[in-house]
Design a protein that fits this description.
- The chain is mainly beta.
- The protein folds into 2 domains: 33-130, Cupredoxins -  blue copper proteins (Immunoglobulin-like, Sandwich), CATH 2.60.40.420; 168-270, Immunoglobulins (Immunoglobulin-like, Sandwich).
- 14% of the residues lie in helices and 45% in strands.
- The protein has 2 helices and 16 strands.
- The strands form 4 sheets. A 5-stranded mixed sheet has the order 2-1-4-7-6, with no helix packed on it.
Length: 271
């Protein structure tokens, strides 16, 4: 009798543990992809990751945890805008924006959805790829840092592109040692002719991420495009004081049709 009670207690304990564990496992399945608004200084704003791939019917969570107003404007969709909850400010003007918000959108139809920030326009763009893109369709990928030493020093070392399509690739990227200039070259496909290229450099100074340089080239031509970006006074002072500085470089190309391709690299700057 005593043994029967002990067995019953053991079974009850196992079942009780199962009732605690099952909801946790269910909650971890089917978690939505997350896209977050990021700010670097006063003038650099972007979505991270810049590109997300999901299956048809999936839900993506969008959020803006900052004190800068951001919103979602759908500029290119395969068959109408996705269904977004009340927490996501969606519209065509800056009035559809907000601070400290979070919500979800559901993507039923396969294809590529391109969106801009309602406040910052094409300079803050992203894509959601639903299902498998048709042949020739370009998608963007999440920013990935370069391997250590890839672009350090006065020389220029080829850097591979991180996009899955041929719209934008980095031919070279380097910092001029002993100076204050970041130089690079990109390859632009014919399909993006007439688009806008934006290069932004950021760094951590005094414990904060700040923008230290930015350039914009409008109506770019296909082929090779060289550029140079001079760092601002705060970065130059930091270089003089510390002799080196880690730069986060973001290169974004938005085609006339609204498709965006974004690449990021890390460059070590030296005096």
């Amino acid at each position: 009798m005593r043994g029967g009670k002990a067995l019953g207690s053991a079974v009850a304990g196992v079942l009780g543990a199962a009732t605690v564990l099952l909801p946790v496992a269910a909650g971890s399945e089917g978690a939505p992809a997350v896209v977050t608004a990021e700010d670097v200084g006063l003038y650099s704003h972007y979505w991270t990751p810049a590109g997300v791939k999901v299956e048809p019917g999936a839900t993506v969570e969008f959020s803006n945890p900052t004190e800068t107003p951001h919103g979602i404007r759908w500029v290119s969709t395969p068959s109408g805008a996705p269904a977004c909850g009340a927490g996501v400010p969606v519209g065509a003007t800056a009035t559809a924006s907000g601070k400290q918000w979070k919500g979800t959108c559901t993507f039923a139809a396969a294809g590529t959805y391109t969106y801009y920030c309602t406040v910052h326009g094409a300079s803050m763009s992203g894509t959601i790829t639903v299902g498998t893109p048709a042949p020739g369709t370009t998608t963007t990928t999440s920013p990935t840092p370069a391997a250590p030493g890839t672009t350090t020093g006065a020389g220029t070392t080829p850097v591979p592109a991180t996009t899955s399509g041929p719209v934008l690739s980095i031919a070279r990227l380097s910092f001029v040692r002993g100076g204050s200039t970041l130089r690079g070259a990109v390859q632009i496909a014919a399909s993006a002719a007439g688009g806008t290229l934006t290069v932004t450099a950021g760094a951590r100074l005094a414990g904060r991420r700040v923008q230290v340089g930015r350039l914009v080239r409008s109506y770019v031509s296909p082929g090779s495009l060289s550029w140079s970006l001079t760092l601002g006074p705060r970065a130059r002072r930091a270089l003089r004081a510390g002799r080196s500085l880690t730069l986060s470089v973001r290169i974004a190309l938005v085609s006339p049709g609204g498709a965006a391709s974004v690449l990021t690299r890390t460059v070590r700057a030296h005096r």
